[in-house]
Amino acid sequence: MPFIRFMQRTFYSLENPRYRIMWFGTLFSFLGMQMQVLARGYLAFDLTGRNSALGGVMLAFGLPQLVLSMWGGVLADRLPKRKVLWVAQGVIALNSAWLATMIEMGMVQYWMLVVAGVVQGSGFAFVGPARQAFISELVGKERIGNAVVLQQLSMNSTRVIGPSIAGALIGIHFIGVAGVYYLTTLGFIIASLTLLKLPKGEPKRKSGRSPMADLLDGFRYVKGRPAVSQLILVAFAVMMLGFPYQSFLPALAKEQYGVGASGLGLLSSVAAIGAVTATIFVAAFAQHQKAWFAQPVLAAMFALSLIGLGFAPNFPMGLVAILFVGALASAFQSLNNSLTMMLTEQEYHGRVQSISSMSFSLFGVAALPIGFVADHIGLQETLTLMGSAAVVCIALLQIVARLQHAADDRLAKPVVLEAAAGGQ
């Protein structure tokens, strides 16, 4: 049966019991994170009424990741990955519990959201590289592409139910935002406990060098591999210019469409449904030989869908647009991560993944200035501008890559001719 073969090809990495444990543990962590993203944005806008405030909490989350993610990659390649994940997840859980208590006591202020964002961003700067590097050890090189995409699927599936649950609970008086934060704390704790059933994740190669030397070695490794560099640069452009749309969904729901918390949950859920659907297809074909050519196409289509969201005049049209935005964003991100990991040697997985994940940090950093632009020219106009800028950057990167490839071919021809002449 074609459908059965398709499903087997899509989920075959979950046949590995150790990867399955990690996948389910990560599912709880992502569920907590997605519920908290909505609750944090709703609370920030409720406290201040400004789009720039939404950008501010995203900046607080993104900036420490930008600064620390490379060191997270170094630790993932130098230390047991389970230990790195355990410590980082514990810090994230404690941070969530503290903020929940402040909200419950009626003492929460905007600056607390900023501080909590800094702590959470710092934690995820170490979680991301260690988790991705751990995947390759659990499943092996022959399944890594599929396993990385399935990891993305676990995140996207929580985006379907997480915002809906959070939006519904915020509307219940005796639960509210504080209750949502307590539930996110529980998700982080469950994720930490599942780590106890996994191997230590010892580094592939013991390094006798300093952490700084390992850090520089990671940059040299990426620089020396044009295919990996191209994937990372496109990810930087797309995520920095396009992905901040997620930060402004609370303002889009409340100001533009007038639908409140329940409408915000629906917008997020529809985007996540598109994301899950797209990721399932990417998981089935992630290791196909044509996957490389699909990456820039998906990037450009995502940017165009963001322009469509900017032109959506009402809530129903906004739901249609956000479906495509969520689907194409996830398809691009999951395929990009999969290709990056497949093209990287295992001993460099942590550092290369940390460089790649800096693009996610940049989206948090870019959210603040984009928020100021939205406050001055309007949110929908800003979304259109974001998508247009992303299209231009993607096109320029593709042109540069083709010119570089042509230059390499021209340099290689004399060598080939000389070798041929010498053999005659």
Defining traits:
single chain, 424 residues, mainly alpha, Growth Hormone, Chain: A, 15 helices, 84% helix, globular
Walk me through the structure.
Helix content is 84%, strand content 0%. The chain is mainly alpha-helical. The protein has a single domain (12-418), classed as Growth Hormone, Chain: A (Up-down Bundle). Helix 11 packs parallel to helix 13 and helix 14 packs antiparallel against helix 15 (379-423).
In short:
With 424 residues, the chain is mainly α. It has helices at residues 2-11, 17-48, 51-78, 81-104, 110-139, 144-170, 176-194, 211-223, 226-241, 249-256, 260-285, 291-311, 315-342, 349-377, 379-423.
Question: How helical, in percent, are the residues?
Answer: over 70%
Number of strands: 0
Structural class: mainly alpha
Q: What order do the SSEs take from the amino end to the carboxyl end, as H and E? A: HHHHHHHHHHHHHHH
Q: Overall pLDDT, averaged?
A: 83
Low-confidence stretches: none
Q: Could you say what the CATH topology is called?
A: Growth Hormone, Chain: A
Largest sheet: none
Number of domains: 1
At the first level of CATH, the class is: Mainly Alpha
- Cα shape: globular
CATH superfamily: MFS general substrate transporter like domains
